[in-house]
Write the structure tokens for this entry.
Amino acid sequence: MKIIACVKRVPTTEAQVKIGADGASIDGAGLESMLSFYDDLAIEEAVRSREKHGGEVTVLTLGPSDCSKELREALAKGADKATILLDPSWAARDARSTAKALAAKIQELGADVVFCGRVATDRDQASVGTLLSSYLGFACVTDVVKLELTPTGGTAQRETEAGIETVSFPVPVVITCDKGLNEPRFAGLKGIMAAKKKTIDEVAPLAVENAVVVQKIELPAARKAGRIVGEGAGAVPALMEALRNEAKVL
């Protein structure tokens, strides 16, 4: 079984994001990076699927050469191969352009199953996975929290606003992974040492024009400083007055 896990490098959750000099991008200078949380779930499910059904796992990303740090983490956790679609302007790509570039490489590599995170934790758009399935012509199951996979198809439980939905699907398929699907493993010393010896392929991505162009980015307005209106039960009237006439939430 050929399995591909698509992953993305994102700023760490503690990163203090600054707007770039152009006013339409994020300043990447000194910005700490990590694998998107949900992509860790995709890597884990890809490795588990290979352990159960055989085959190989390729981790695929689009970005700068520095992404090798995150890809070596994936290799240390059990992935067999890794590829970077090198693009110094990757952060400016929209979801459509990103998905088309990934889809072109996936078609070249061949795949039975493609795992993605449910959403990237930077832009929070949750669209690349579904776009991938459309460009590849694969079945698609999103927000998966439980999976039973076979070489020809499978069943999945997915999180919806109405509750848990169970669906059947054929292979090939794109699956986006949600919290609860698995518990990602930690890389052991043996895996870390093995990952250092593996080659990460770096290739040019398909040239695709953006359909969306960011014109401007603004930080949210600073919140007003809070204040203490009193202490204990005696402060309740003052609190109610402030909520009613100042905050206007009552």
Summary: The helical segments are 37-53, 68-76, 95-109, 128-136, 189-197, 236-246.
